Amino acid sequence: MARIAVIDDNESMLKLLELTIKAPERDIVLYRHPEEALLDILKEPFDLVMTDLSMPRITGHEVIKSLRAKYSKEELPIIVISAVGLEEAIIKAFDLGADDYIVKPFKKGEVRSKVNLMLFKKDEGRPRADGDSEEHSILGKIGHFLLLELIGEGGMGAVYKAKDLESGRTVALKVLTEHIARDDRIRRFLREAAILKEVDHPNITRFYEIHRDNDRYFFSMEFVDGKDLEDFVDAGKRFTEAQAIDFLIQAASALDYLQGKNMVHRDIKPSNFLFDEGTGNFKLTDFGLTIREHDERFTEDGILMGTLEYFAPEQITGELSVDIRSDIFSLGSTVYFVLAGTYAFNDPEDRKVLHLVARAKPTPLEDHRSDLSKEFHAIIKKMMMRKPADRFASPAELIKALEKIKK
């Protein structure tokens, strides 16, 4: 519970500030008389003090001076509140030990951001209990987000674990790389955000907001506290048959939802599935290559995009339009990797990988996992047939087949 002292001789201003910064897990104490506030704060420490500078009996400068005689900036952040045109008073407040300032009339969003930032920095400096995973460092700030950790990087940009200073929640923040922010890349980035905004499914990462800060574009989405399936394999782990069936049912449920939206993901692979340790759900992420069915298979640049080892044959040959059955093929290659620990189409040369995928001739999964049931092997084979017509016709049909063999 964060304790915040707000000091102002104007009762209406006190109430307005209370409404502005009110949030769960906050104890906000209002003081019209600074002498009462000082008695309480010097006796029992608070997490943050907000004080007006212009008060009749004891000024905000005197409040800061008294508090700094006992508490350091790390121990007690102080935000001062000032009227417009009192720059000298604000400078003096900083000289005495204030951390930040607010000018009246204030913008509510700005006040919330400043308060959240002060509380976050103070909390960051506290000793952590064993097992506490809160980040100890800040990589930077963009808009009203603190960048805590780089969690992924690609050709279009980077994804960070970030703190939203307005809502207080932890998010995943995807940021378009500045040096590639041309018009076509910006359009593609905004298209991904628009697609994510349309979808709402328990096995797809939830979209929050699109943002722009000067010439920087970024959007916030649900932060999933867990690892992706590529990390799972890198750690030496493999799916059991029961785990693989559970994963496939969840993944196919996400694809079934996308099919209902007339969408094809086009980038199904292990690193795009996150396991949410809190809910036990697998979450599909990264919609940068998602298109409507029967749209062109190439990006605007005319370059085939994606990860070769998880392509469907038609993505390479161009013989047929890409549709949801292409995602089913890629999902088969994905679960193959998590079962076997290696690619279904494996060769150090990309050219040879393309040839193997185009012919749909994977190394038999039985060579790696003889412990799996014949029925399950048959499902994986059907998912990875060369011709789309020979695969499962829909994710719903795949789910039905999996449910039959689920124990």
Can you walk through the features of this model?
- With 407 residues, the chain is an alpha/beta fold.
- It folds into three domains: 2-124, Response regulator (Rossmann fold, 3-Layer(aba) Sandwich), CATH 3.40.50; 140-222, 2-Layer Sandwich (Phosphorylase Kinase, domain 1); 229-405, Transferase(Phosphotransferase) domain 1 (Transferase(Phosphotransferase), domain 1, Orthogonal Bundle), CATH 1.10.510.
- Helices cover 37% and strands 20% of the residues.
- The chain is built from 13 helices and 15 strands.
- It has helices at residues 11-21, 34-43, 60-68, 87-96, 108-124, 183-198, 229-234, 241-260, 313-317, 324-340, 350-359, 374-383, 395-405; strands spanning 2-7, 26-31, 48-52, 78-83, 100-104, 140-142, 145-153, 157-164, 170-176, 207-213, 216-222, 263-264, 273-276, 281-284, 291-292.
- The strands form four sheets. A six-stranded antiparallel β-sheet has the order 6-7-8-9-11-10, with helices on one face.
- α8 (241-260) runs antiparallel to α10 and α12 (374-383) packs antiparallel against α13 (395-405).
- It is elongated, with a radius of gyration of 27 Å.
- Mean pLDDT is 87; it is low at 127-136 and 297-302.
